[in-house]
């Protein structure tokens, strides 16, 4: 017997809201669509490309897991609403498998009585994946009361059987726990406009929505006090809903392409043999030396093509970074925060942009411990040549490319090395 696969046209958006329509078979998964766009756009497949379900009228969105059927997701959309599929990077999608401790703070996790409630961190993720053990996430959350405008703070408990809140302080006694939702037929969304649309007390909103429902009435709106707590709740809910399937998705991404955490190492190519440089201060001097000789060559090339070579060295300095995928030009602080948050709050996610407060300087926006920090890059006059520094002129770079390359290899004054850059793509 033949199965006839129907082709359907779907529309997919990217960060700047340009879109592209593609014809796809009806059994296509989110991972297939990502692969399709990676090929069409000649992107590098670094396992972070993700499909999102974005429901504008409700101000919420979620990751569509790699194995999910996209047509099933679309079939849940109401006709008269602005619902979209977005294709963009999310570096945090599987980060909890690598660094569970960043996602599950001690005070929010306990594990069933077999281990006397002591969390063995090496086993933390296994506890979620193994259906016979019972991990529990607990803590205070604000909840919006049904059909009212007010929010109230309760003590919440998340277990395999679902999400509960206590109607008596922090009591976990069965008679005090009230059931709110389970995940068999609902999904977990991030609330993108918790304060604005839903009047939440903080910006860290999320919600549980029934797969059948499409109006604001069907949302169980919650909000946490900080980003770490929100990430912990959402990650735990994803793990409890999909379990082993998530781990298989993760393995599928990495089994073919195990990118070493330290794929970037400093190499010295000057001698007869190449060697890896271990000493950080030597790395810097080699990098600066290489950078200078490379720039000298490119200056000669530029001035050789009849371009005005009055200040030979400054020509490439100014223009080189503009073409880099990590440079975002006149991006405001708020837009930088939004872009980094959208692409997943993982350590080392970064971008560079023009400073808005000081026109001649640049800013490095960097994520560390789920917070986004901004560092000013100042131009320094070095005997008539402009150089750049991020640490009050202790370490100098001839241009921004060299600065970025250095901090990809060395932490220096930063809280962590630069690891992934925020890139925007055109579909």
TrEMBL record:
CDD domains with a match to the protein in the record: PH_APBB1IP (cd01259)
The protein's predominant localisation is: cytoplasm
Q: Does the keyword Phosphoprotein apply?
A: yes
Pfam name, any one: BPS
UniProt KW keywords: Cytoplasm, Phosphoprotein, SH2 domain
Q: Where in the cell is it found?
A: Cytoplasm
Any idea where the PH domain is? 134-242
Q: Show the PROSITE patterns listed in the entry.
A: PH_DOMAIN, RA, SH2
Task: Using the record's annotation, list all stretches that form the SH2 domain.
Answer: 326-422
User: So which domain of life are we looking at?
Assistant: Eukaryota
Classification via InterPro entries: BPS-dom (IPR015042), GRB/APBB1IP (IPR039664), PH-like_dom_sf (IPR011993), PH_APBB1IP (IPR039665), PH_domain (IPR001849), RA_dom (IPR000159), SH2 (IPR000980), SH2_dom_sf (IPR036860)
Signal peptide annotation: none
Q: Which GO terms describe its cellular component?
A: cytoplasm; plasma membrane
Q: Which PANTHER family does the annotation name?
A: GROWTH FACTOR RECEPTOR-BOUND PROTEIN, GROWTH FACTOR RECEPTOR-BOUND PROTEIN 14
The entry assigns this protein to a family as follows: Belongs to the GRB7/10/14 family.
Instruction: Indicate what this protein is called per its UniProt record.
Output: Growth factor receptor bound protein 14
């Amino acid at each position: 017997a033949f199965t006839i696969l129907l082709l359907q046209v779907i529309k997919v958006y990217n960060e700047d809201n340009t879109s592209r329509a593609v014809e796809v078979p009806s059994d296509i998964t989110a991972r297939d669509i990502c692969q399709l766009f990676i090929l069409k756009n000649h992107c590098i497949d670094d396992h972070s490309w993700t499909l999102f379900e974005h429901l504008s009228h409700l101000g919420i969105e979620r990751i569509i897991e790699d194995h999910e059927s996209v047509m099933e997701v679309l079939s849940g959309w109401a006709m008269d609403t602005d619902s979209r599929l977005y294709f963009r990077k999310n570096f945090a999608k599987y980060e909890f498998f690598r660094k569970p401790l960043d996602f599950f703070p001690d005070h929010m996790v306990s594990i069933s009585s077999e281990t006397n409630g002591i969390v063995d961190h090496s086993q933390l993720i296994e506890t979620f994946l193994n259906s016979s053990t019972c991990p529990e996430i607990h803590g205070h959350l604000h909840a919006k009361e049904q059909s009212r405008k007010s929010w109230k703070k309760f003590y919440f408990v998340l277990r395999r059987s679902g999400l509960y809140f206590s109607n008596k302080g922090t009591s976990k006694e069965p008679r005090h726990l009230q059931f709110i939702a389970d995940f068999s037929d609902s999904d977990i969304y991030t609330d993108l406009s918790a304060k604005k649309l839903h009047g939440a007390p903080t910006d860290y909103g999320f919600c549980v929505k029934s797969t059948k429902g499409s109006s604001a009435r069907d949302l169980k709106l919650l909000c946490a006090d900080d980003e770490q707590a929100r990430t912990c709740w959402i990650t735990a809910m994803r793990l409890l809903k999909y379990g082993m399937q998530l781990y298989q998705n993760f393995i599928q991404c990495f089994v073919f392409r195990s990118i070493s955490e330290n794929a970037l190492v400093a190499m010295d190519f000057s001698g007869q043999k190449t060697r890896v440089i271990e000493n950080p201060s030597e790395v810097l001097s080699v990098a600066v030396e290489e950078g200078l000789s490379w720039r000298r060559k490119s200056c000669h090339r530029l001035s050789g093509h009849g371009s005005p070579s009055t200040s030979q060295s400054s020509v490439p300095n100014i223009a080189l970074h503009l073409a880099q995928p990590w440079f975002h030009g006149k991006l405001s602080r708020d837009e930088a925060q939004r872009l980094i948050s959208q692409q997943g709050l993982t350590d080392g996610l970064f971008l560079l942009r023009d400073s808005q407060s000081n026109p001649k300087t640049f800013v490095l926006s960097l994520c560390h411990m789920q917070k986004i920090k901004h560092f000013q890059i100042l131009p320094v006059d070095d005997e008539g040549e402009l150089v750049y520094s991020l640490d009050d002129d202790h370490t100098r770079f001839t241009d921004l490319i060299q600065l970025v390359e250095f901090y990809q290899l060395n932490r220096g004054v930063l809280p962590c090395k630069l690891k992934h850059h925020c890139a925007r793509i055109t579909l």
